[in-house]
Write a structure and sequence with these properties.
alpha/beta, Rossmann fold, 6-stranded mixed beta sheet, 20 helices
Amino acid sequence: MTIHGNTNGLSPSDVHALERIYRRRVPFDRLLTPELGRSMAEVSAATGRQVGVLADRGGSVLFVVVGDATKLMLPDVGRVRAAQGRFRGLRLVHTHLTLEGLTRDDLVDLTRLRLDLVAALCLDRDGQPSTVHYGHNAPVAPGSTEPPYRTVGPIPYASLIGGRLDEIDPSRIVAELEAEFARAASTRTRLAAAPSGRAVLVHVCDRRNAWRAEESLRELGELARTAGVDVVDTVLQVRAEIDPKFLVGRGKLDEIVLRSMQHDASVLIFDRNLGPAQAAAIASVVDLKVIDRSQLILDIFAQRAESRDGRLQVELAQMKYLLPRLGQKDDSLSRLTGGIGGRGPGETVLEIGKRRARERISRLETELEKLATQRRNRRQRRNRRDVPIVSIVGYTNAGKSTLLNALTGSDTVAEDKLFATLDTRSRRLRLPQEREIVITDTVGFIRELPPDLFAAFRATFEEAEDADLLLHVVDASDPALAEQIKTTEQLLGELGLSNVPTLLVLNKCDRVEPAFAETLARTRGGVPLSATDPETFAPLLERMESILRRLGSEPAMQAERLVPSTTSVRIVAPREGHFDDAAIDAVLAAASSTRS
């Protein structure tokens, strides 16, 4: 029989007394029994420490726990029982060395672990049972300010022993609560619009970066919406310095647990990239699914990648992200393999998992390198044809795909969501003077893009390396415009595209005052327009034509001008590659035939 918790300094007689508590039974229809109350009170008074038991619904004591004078540290009690509305099937009965009621730690354990009930037996100065407090979980309406629990007490211990003890029936209370929770969960399931669960967003920063906290939370909310998550609450904490273990303070983390229960949230999304140890430490306290900004972005990319290239790049980034976290996923992974070939020191299941992950990463990198070679060959063929190429780049959700569709009359997916485009799309565009170019749409940038994802998708921007001109599209109505421009320029520099001529396109100018749009265009040298209004495109097309002419593209463009408009071919990126080579070759062949 194991005694859990703070056993340091206990005498053999104390340990024996604690072990005898395992023999006590606590019927499910009783809050506690006189025998159990007396046994815990005697040990608690003798040791000066809190003593508690975790009992199941069959009445058996499964865990005996000893703490210090003010709190208990509960052991790992396993996973939550299955089915909607179900509690864990355990109740905590423990002593308090003072006459205080249920503490914040008690209520956090109650809600975090979804215990059936928590009861505190309070001792007087002589170490005798004096009063009893108890609490249980309670359903609350979404968005309500009511706490997700109810407390009762103080109840005089003498009155419980005198007969009222039988009037408090935990089995009836729990049965009614589980039925009520199940009804509420069923209603939410029918009404929920988000398939990926309900989440609380958490942003923590130091005082130096407090100025960008609100904007960062807003962007995280957009990422969550794109991933199909229902955001039910947000938490913002500004600290002198970030806690290295939990990011937020432990007290704040307890508050987040209560708020998560209050909104029936199942996911915590942190607006930072968590280390493996940080994610494991937070998950062990909150008992909720914990993901960070990188994991959220990877999930979005996994949902939206369509081409083989894109899917492989996402898988590679996910494998690299998960590899250092494999040891945190499941304690069973640390077991040694058994049987023939597995005896002795052997290889742990965890080591096998990591080895297989590294092998998969190696295979993915090999496949992506083959696809990269194919792309290089395609670009070389296009370069020999001297076809001007314009690439659209910019921050995610700036309107790049909408602009491509409006310019070319295509039907590329364009949504008011982050990362609506993940695979490069190319179309043919005829400029005002009958000059034709190839214009490509690329995946959007975002601040703090996960390093592994950035490395994996670096190949996507190889197409932009051969571009004659970059159209840097920005959302002129976004409050974080300046920071988004800075982020994009920084990432373009990391991709080695800083030397490619760039034209700033101020999109969504219909959402701002005309004077502001004109000032912005003048100060930043950009072209204002609205991607939903083709009448605003003339200045952009003229600037593009002028820039390409100055860059020495005149001979190739003159040749393209000779191609009759009836031979217009749309260049479509198929699911298995970035460019439709047949379509590109058709355009180039027509131009070559006319020239000859």
